[in-house]
Amino acid sequence: MRLELLLHFEEPFLIPYNYPRSLYSFLIHGIELGEEGISKRIHTNKKDVKFVASRLLPLGKVKKTEKGLLVEQGRVRLFVGSSAWPVLEALVNGLGSGLGELHIGERRLLEAEIKTAKTPKRLSGQRFRTLSPVSVYHNNPPNGFRSWDLSPVGQPNSPFEDESVVWKELVFRNLREKYLMVHGEPHEGDFGIEVFPRNVRSKMFRIKGVNVRAWEFEFRMWGDEEFLRVAWDMGLGMRNTHGFGMIEVM
């Protein structure tokens, strides 16, 4: 399930270019106001059902600044999805009770309008777009293990012979783990994904002092609808609670 949030913040409101940490803090605090126990589970238990968030999408006139996008009227759109209704319910309740207390940067939330977003009847074969990081640790002698941000189409300086294949394997593994969390049993079916290389772009973010490269791309995926629904509800790839991996129908 997915919610569409229309949020009004104090003006002037800035969407920072490096938004992941502030977005996560806003959402986890909102969930905490609605149900503290759910917030703690999300924050501390990596093997528990979580949520996926989109980027903050500005509404109205926008001006680019050195630090971010200045939204003149302070209004933004945000999508949040989860396979667990209690997570979304806690967020809805928290937004309702947290007006004036919840904030991004130094700007308080003044108003929140919440709607249920439409879910496609069929996902397999559809064309999508997302912004998603996928990272892996690999051996890098003599420096030991280091993190590498994988590209869905590969990179010239990659330590992997076929980086796009490794990327696909990790995306599939990540979705199987989410499926197990949601349904309580392993997924045994197939999964296919095709990335359109012409539209792939990379963006760098800093999260908890670590540089993270995410890739924005268009793609199609195939498989069992129940399995693909997990990608729709929970996100593709990693760091979904920080605003990555929400898939959008083209």
Automatic annotation (TrEMBL):
Family listed: Belongs to the CRISPR-associated protein Cas6/Cse3/CasE family.
Keywords, alphabetical: Antiviral defense, RNA-binding
Domain CRISPR associated protein Cas6 C-terminal: residue ranges: 124-249
Keyword Aminoacyl-tRNA synthetase found: no
Role, per record: CRISPR (clustered regularly interspaced short palindromic repeat), is an adaptive immune system that provides protection against mobile genetic elements (viruses, transposable elements and conjugative plasmids). CRISPR clusters contain sequences complementary to antecedent mobile elements and target invading nucleic acids. CRISPR clusters are transcribed and processed into CRISPR RNA (crRNA).
Pfam assignment, any one: Cas_Cas6_C
Biological source species: Thermococcus barossii
InterPro entries: Cas_Cas6_C (IPR049435), CRISPR-assoc_prot_Cas6 (IPR010156), CRISPR-assoc_prot_Cas6_N_sf (IPR045747)
NCBIfam families: cas_cas6
PANTHER family, per database record: CRISPR-ASSOCIATED ENDORIBONUCLEASE CAS6 1 (PTHR36984)
GO function terms (MF aspect): hydrolase activity, acting on ester bonds; RNA binding
Record's protein name: CRISPR-associated endoribonuclease
GO biological process: defense response to virus
Gene3D superfamilies reported for this sequence: 3.30.70.1890, 3.30.70.1900
